[in-house]
Amino acid sequence: MQLHNYQQKAFKFLVDKIATLNSAALFLRMGLGKTLPTLMYLEYLKSIGEKLDVLIIAPKMVALYTWPNEIKKWGFSFSFRQLAGLPAGRRRQILNKHGKCDIDIINIDILRWMIEENYMRYDMIIIDELSCFKDHDSKRFKAFKRLVTTFKYKIIGLTGTPAPNNLIQLWPMMYLLDRGQRLGKNITTYRNEYFYPGFITPSRVVTKWNLRDGCSEDIYKAIGDIVYCVNDTSLIDVPPLIDIPYYVHLDNDVKRLYRDFKRNLLVSIEDVEIEGVNAAVMTNKLIQFNSGCIYDEKGYEHIVHTAKIEALKELLSFMENDNVLICYWFKHEKHRLLELGYPELDIELWNSGKQPIAIIHPASCGHGLNLQSGGSVFIWFTLTWSLELYEQTLARLLRQGQKLPVRSYKLLIPNSIDEEIVKVLEGKKNMQNALMDALQIP
To answer: Is the separation of the CB atoms in 24 and 40 below 8 Å?
Structure first.
C-alpha cells in the first residue's frame, strides 16, 4: 500500500506518542484517511511481537462497514470481530474465549452497556469519532470518563471535526485522552481558565461562554504535543466542492404566513394553533415551516406547503446522468421522499452505481462511510445546524477516489431561517479551521 507522506507521519506519531504518553489523537480533515495509519500502527505492534487487545469504538455504520472493509482490503494479519446484535448474543461472543480476536469493533451506542457489564477489559481503545464525546453532560461521556479515570488504557482518538461548534467541546475529548492533564480535571476549571460568561439568565445560569482574548492560542499550545493535525486537503487528489444554492420561492400567502408566524410566535394550520414558546422552539418551528410541514405539541404533522418537494423534483429532472444523495432532516421529509419513490441508501447498490437516487440522514450517514464510488451530487432538502454532521456528510463523497467535482445543492427559501443556517455554518467553519491550522505541523 502507498501511504501519503502525512499518513506516514501520522503512523510515526502514533508509534512515538503511545510509547511515551499512552495516548494520541489524529485530527485529520475528512477524506484524508485516518483509518489506514491507525491500522498500520496496529500491524506494527503485531510485527514486533506485542499482543493486541484492542477495542475500536465507532458510529454504527462505520463500525459495520468502514473498519472491517479496510482491514480486509489491505490484508492485515490481525483478526477482528464485530460485537453487535442483542445483549445476549454480544455476551456470548465476549465470553467465548476460543473465539477471541485481536480487535473487537463496537457501535458507539453499545458502549454504556459494555461498561455497565464490566466488559471493558482491553489494553487499548481506539475512538472513532472522538467528537461523539464532545458533550461533557452526556451519559455516554460520563460513563466513559469514570472508566478511563479508573483504568489506564492506551487511547487513540480520531476525528476530522475536533471543535464543530466551539472550543468548549474540546475539553471532554481531551479528558478521555489525558485524564485532564492538559485542559484541567473538570469542565469548570477549563471554563474559568480560558472563557468568561457571555450570557447569564435571571436565575444566574450561564448559557453562553465567550473565549478570553488570546486564549485560543493557549489552548492550541496546551494540547499540541498529543495531537497530530492535518487540515490541508491539497495534500491529496480530491476534486473541488461546488456549493450551489437552489432558491425555492413560496406563494405570497405562504410567505405572509411565515412572516406572521415569525412576528407573532403563533400560527394556525388546519385549525390547530402552533406556538413558538421560546427562541429554541421557535427556531425549530421555522425550519419545519420551510420544510413544508409543522409538528404540533402532540407530534402530529400539519402540511404547510409543497414548494421544496416541487423544487426537488424539478432539480432532479436536470440530473438524469447523475447519481444523487438527498439529505433530509425531519421524519415527515423521509416519509414524503419514500412516497415519491426515492429509496433509503443501500451502500452496496450505491457504490456499484446501481442506485441513482438515495435518501440519507446526516446523523446516520455522517461519519466514516466511503460512498465516493457511487456518485458526486448532494441535495440538501433541509440543512442541519451541526457543522460536524454537515462536513462529515459532505466527506462521504468528497474524499480520495472521487473522480468528479462534488456538487452540493441547498434548497433555500430566500429571506428565511434557511439563509441564517448557512451563515452559522460558515461562522463555525472559520472557528474550526483556525483550530486545525494552529495545530497543523508544517
So the answer is: no
Secondary structure (3-state) at 352? coil
* CA distances from residue 321 to 324, 367, 407 in whole angstroms, order as listed: 10, 27, 13
C-alpha separations of 193 from 152, 171, 189, 213 in Å: 27, 12, 6, 12
Q: Which has the closest alpha carbon to 333: 304, 356, 354, 353?
A: 304
Q: Alpha helix locations (H) across 132-214?
A: 139-150, 170-178, 187-194
Domains and CATH numbers, the chain: 5-236 (3.40.50.10810), 241-434 (3.40.50.300)
Complete DSSP assignment for 209-245: EEEPTTHHHHHHHHHGGGEEEE--GGGS--PPEEEEE
Checking 12-16 for CB contacts under 8 A at 24+ apart, the result is: 13/228, 14/38, 14/41, 14/156, 14/228, 15/41, 15/44
Contact 378, 408 (CB under 8 A): yes
Strand-pairing partners, residue 107, are: 58
List 378's β-bridge partners, or say none.
325, 408
- Coil vs helix vs strand at 294: strand
CB-based contact 88:394 (threshold 8 Å): no
How far apart CA 352 and CA 361 sit, in angstroms, is 20
Cα dihedral: 246, 251, 253, 254 (round 10): -30
Task: Give CA–CA dist 211/165, Å, rounded.
Answer: 13
Distance CA(61)–CA(370), nearest Å, equals 10
Half-sphere exposure of 254 (CA within 13 A, CB side): 19
- The Cα 230–Cα 6 span in angstroms is 8
The residue type at 154 = K
The whole-number pLDDT of residue 429 equals: 81
Which amino acid would we find at residue 379?
A: I
Residues 230/442, Cβ–Cβ less than 8 Å: no
User: CB burial class (10 A; 0-12, 13-18, 19+) of residue 84?
Assistant: middle
In this predicted model, what pLDDT tens digit does every residue of 107-144 receive, in sequence order?
998 999 999 999 998 999 999 989 889 999 999 999 99
Peptide bond connecting 129 to the previous residue in cis, omega within 30 degrees of 0: yes
**Around Cβ 246, how many Cβ atoms within 10 Å?**
15
Indicate the pairing of strand 154-159 with strand 195-200. Answer: unpaired
pLDDT digits (tens, 9 = 90+) for 305-341: 999 999 999 999 988 889 999 999 999 999 999 999 9
Lookup: cell for 247: 432558491
